[in-house]
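Task card 7
Instruction: Convert sequence to structure tokens.
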Amino acid sequence: MSDYVNVPTPAAWRDLCERHPEFRLPESEPLRVGLTAERHAELCEIHHEVDATCPWNHDFMVHGAMDYWTPATPKGGDCEDLALAKQKAAVARGWDPASFALVLCRGRNGRFDETEFDHAVLAVFTNGGLVVLDNRMRMPAAMPDLTRDLSYLSGYRWLVRSDPTGGWVSLAEGRGSEETADMHPEIRALNAAWLKQKYSRH
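Output:
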């Protein structure tokens, strides 16, 4: 963990943990999961179910407040809320909270759009690096894939993330690079296999 620098905990996270103690950081080392086909399928199901049942909506429209973090519901939620809802659903299925981190980042809507937006995703610690559930993406993705420019989305700049050991850490200037350098070698193949199985049933 020597590559990390602690940063102040976001006020919205502190408020979340007061209202939802189950999101308090476990104060343990990250629990890396083996991303088997079964585990991957669970993540895909959770990712699709939350995104399908909880529409994106601004905090002010749902809660009457700005930057209010809470698990999304069918009334909607923004990016942090959708990420939190996915963690909540995974823990309800038996996943350990120490396997997750909320990651804050910044991106642009395309290669030729200079307008930046703040964003949040849920990251899963796996034995092949961080795998990300992002409401802007159809499928789970290896963290390095989301730093690359796509036609409709400029690569993210990772800023900070929650840390299971307690507190928040910086991902700026390459800190925490050991988490992003080792792409899970099978994530794309797992995605393709899951989609094939899903649509072959219809």
